[in-house]
Amino acid sequence: MYSAQVSSFISIPFPPSKSKTHKLKYPKILHTKLCNSTPKMSLNQNSNTNLINTITKLLWGPSLPPQLLISTVRSTWSATWQLMMSQLAPSDPTGSYTRPTSQFRLYSNPELKFSPKDLHLYVGLPCPWAHRTLIVRALKGLEDSVPVSIASPGIDGSWEFRVFSDPDKDKLVPGLDKANGCKTLREVYKLRRGGYSGRSTVPMLWDMGKKEVLCNESYDIIEFFNSGLNEISGNPELDLSPPALKVDIRKWNDIIYPNVNNGVYRCGFAQSQEAYNKAAEGLFRTLEMLEDHLAGSRYLCGDVLTLADVCLFTTLIRFDVVYNVLFKCTKKKLIEFTNLHGYLRDIYQIPKVAETCNMGQIMEGYYKILFPLNPGGINPIMPSGCEDEVLSKPHNRDCLSLETKVVQHSVS
Questions:
Q1: How big is the CA angle at 283 (ends 280 and 289), to the nearest 5 degrees?
Q2: Which of 90, 205, 406, 412, by CA, is between 20 and 30 Å from 187?
Q3: Which part of the chain is the GST C-terminal domain (predicted)?
Q4: Mean pLDDT over residues 78-91, rounded?
Q5: The overall pTM is greater than 0.90
């Protein structure tokens, strides 16, 4: 996800006073109207909008603003947008989004020791990277062994903890920090020994005993949940990365991560037309390839659900509801890909997976918080293809898993 702090300011043009220091003068009739109308508005009632409307009507009535004003505002907004985007989504010289690397890696320190009973997971529901960890945690039966605190995005884009009333009681919802009682995720990161001043991202695996960040790289966490906690897992026999498929899983991840998982962000966060065109071409070329592959294979690696499927799923479930609209991934909706949408429904209907997919929270986290991409903060109506009733429709993909059917097991 992201942790940039974005703020906006509106400058309200009040008429000049009669002080000699003001050289700018309004026409007499306009000055009189402004002075007579302004006192009728209460600044205590957020009357900025009314004041702006009054001034613009007096200046140019029902006509469009003059071209000079339009060009000035456009130039100012463009410069402001570039500034905000440079903080929200750092890019290379071509304008292509460059995702920052995770600072805390689980397997980078071979001497790292911790107790499984001290593990605590921090996530945010809008984030596809955090969603991976929630799915593997649920499928492996680690809900009781690895407690979770669910943050929600604040108005400045940072993660915060607060009680959140959500009408969908069957889904996970944001709440308070159960491990440290902090108000923000940034405060949790700062609790670690030596403090912290970097990006406070989710997912994050926390050591409650040592007060230390163990990992904030999603793939490290899902690999660890899959095979590193079987002694406390409720479903230890499930292996989402079996030895015989590790090579294929790695090949699929090498295709899906840059072109799909990160590809949608490279479209949405592109800061040049060239960067956007390149990202969009790679994204939809890969989706078409996946559509063809899934015509003859139930999952990416054949009959078996793997970590590669989990990583693809968390992007696909957000595609029509967010990326198609907000990130300009507009060439085709996911629901137009017959096999991909059936594959999405297949995984969604696996027990426990749907509970991790709070579509309302996903939309809230993108449309309300990504100010540079949606300045009005208007949350659109959820596409019908993303509603639970549609995602729960029969997918008939189990017919691809018949033992008599030859399925694809390798990446060409």
A1: 140
A2: 90
A3: 242-376
A4: 64
A5: no
Which residue among 265, 276, 299, 323 is the active-site one? 265
What 3-state DSSP class applies to 178? coil
Both structure tokens of 213: 């960040």
Q: Is the pLDDT of residue 353 over 60?
A: yes
**Phi (first) and psi of residue 347, to 5 degrees:** -70, -40
Both tokens of residue 163? Answer: 């009680």
Q: For residues 135 and 357, what is the distance between their CA atoms, to the nearest angstrom? A: 9
Using the structure block, give the residue that is written with the tokens 């008599």: 404
| Dihedral sign for Cα atoms in the order 166, 171, 174, 178 | positive
Query: Which domains, ranges and CATH numbers included, belong to the chain?
Result: 119-232 (3.40.30.10), 243-349+381-410 (1.20.1050.10)
**Residue range 246-290, pLDDT digits in tens:** 999 999 999 999 999 999 999 999 989 999 999 999 999 999 999
What per-residue confidence (pLDDT) applies to 3? Answer: 47
Concerning whether 265 is annotated as a catalytic residue, the answer is: yes
Query: What is the structure's pLDDT at 385?
Result: 92
Residue 101 has pLDDT above 60, yes or no: yes
On whether the CB atoms of residues 374 and 326 are closer than 8 A, the answer is yes
Q: What whole-number distance in Å separates Cα of residue 200 and Cα of residue 100?
A: 12
pLDDT at 32: 46
In angstroms, the Cα distances linking 122 to 97, 148, 216, 293, 408 are 25, 6, 9, 34, 36
Q: Which residues contact 402 (CB under 8 A, 6 or more apart)?
A: none
d(CA 198, CA 201): 9
Dihedral, CA of residue 279, residue 284, residue 285 and residue 291, to nearest 10: 150
pLDDT at 80: 62
